[in-house]
Amino acid sequence: MNKNLIGYRHMLNLTQSQMAFKLGMSPVSYCHKETGKKDFTQTEIEETMKLLKEKRPELTYEEVFIRGN
After folding, report:
1. For the chain, counts of helices (H) and of strands (E)
2. Which is the CATH superfamily of the domain at 3-65?
3. Are 28 and 22 within 8 A, CB to CB?
C-alpha cells in the first residue's frame, strides 16, 4: 500500500474514483495500483506527478512512489 500517495491524493481532496478519472483509468485499476497489487506505468507516474505538482510543485517522485517513506 502506498500511504504516501494516499496522503497526497487526500491533499488534493480527491477520491480514488476521481483520481482514476483524472488519470484515465478505471477506479478498480487505480485502487489496485494505489494498494500495490499492480504497478503504475511510467506514463501513469508522470501524470500522477503532474497532478500532485499543481498543488505542491516541490514534490519529488521519491516522496510519492518510494515505499517505506
Report:
1. 5, 0
2. lambda repressor-like DNA-binding domains (1.10.260.40)
3. no
Show the cell assigned to 61: 517522485
* pLDDT tens-digit map of 32-46: 999 999 999 999 999
Burial of 48 from C-beta contacts in 10 A (0-12 / 13-18 / 19+): buried
Going by C-alpha positions, the residue among 12, 20, 69 that lies closest to residue 44 is: 20
Mean pLDDT value across the chain: 93
| Amino acid letter for position 28 | V
Would you kindly state where each structural domain of the chain is located, as residue ranges? 3-65
pTM value > 0.85: yes
Average confidence (pLDDT) over 46-52: 96
